[in-house]
Amino acid sequence: MKNIYVLRLGHRPERDKRVTTHVALVARAFGARGVFIEGEDNRLTENIKKVLEEWGGGSYFKVEMISDPKKIVNLWKRKGGKVVHLTMYGVNLPDMIDRIEHEDNLLIIVGAQKVEGWYYHHADYNIAVSNQPHSEIASLAIILDRIYKGEELNIMFEDNKISVIPMERGKKVIRRDG
């Protein structure tokens, strides 16, 4: 798997807890190595860590609350990584996927509110999944799916306590003690 992290800008605990949780869950399930979340929200990180304990990925996926997202962007770039900013104002993903799918060290930025112009200028790529308003969760899922060409759908976390056995009908869940 590639070294892909997600930077969630402007998390507002009272308003964004569900959306930011879903950003983290999609990042984990679709092959990112972790998520940096701007702000303070201990309850959010605890909820995500509970998912990691039950469904696996705790040794693989990292969650970190941060106060200075610009510092993360600058550090990422200094270490040779590329920064992708998901924005409906960017170049459409089909026109950019050939450039980014070969990158092994990506920081993908998703905003929660109006994103400061600084990020547009410091991103290596400003990419739109669509030039229409829609969910940052959907954008993140689609770009990760395009980068991994669907292979991320086969991710299995060995440290899971709960796993789902795919079935055409019904539900089958395996629970392990531990």
UniProtKB/TrEMBL annotation:
Under the subunit heading, UniProt states: Homodimer.
Instruction: Tell me what this protein is called.
Output: tRNA (cytidine(56)-2'-O)-methyltransferase
Does the record's keyword annotation contain Coiled coil?
A: no
Q: Which residues does the annotation say bind S-adenosyl-L-methionine?
A: 86, 129-136
Where located?
Answer: Cytoplasm
InterPro entries, per this entry? Alpha/beta_knot_MTases, tRNA_m1G_MTases_N, tRNA_mtfrase_aTrm56
Q: A single Gene Ontology molecular function, please?
A: tRNA (cytidine(56)-2'-O)-methyltransferase activity
Q: What does this protein do, in the record's words? A: Specifically catalyzes the AdoMet-dependent 2'-O-ribose methylation of cytidine at position 56 in tRNAs.
Q: Which UniProt keywords apply?
A: Cytoplasm, Methyltransferase, S-adenosyl-L-methionine, Transferase, tRNA processing
Keyword Methyltransferase: yes or no? Answer: yes
One cellular component GO annotation, for this chain's record? cytoplasm
What is the similarity comment for this entry? Belongs to the aTrm56 family.
Tell me where it mainly resides. Answer: cytoplasm
Which catalysed reactions does the entry list for this protein? Answer: cytidine(56) in tRNA + S-adenosyl-L-methionine = 2'-O-methylcytidine(56) in tRNA + S-adenosyl-L-homocysteine + H(+)
- For this entry, list what GO says about its biological process: tRNA nucleoside ribose methylation
What EC numbers are recorded for this enzyme?
Answer: 2.1.1.206
Lineage runs: Archaea, Thermoproteota, Thermoprotei, Sulfolobales, Sulfolobaceae
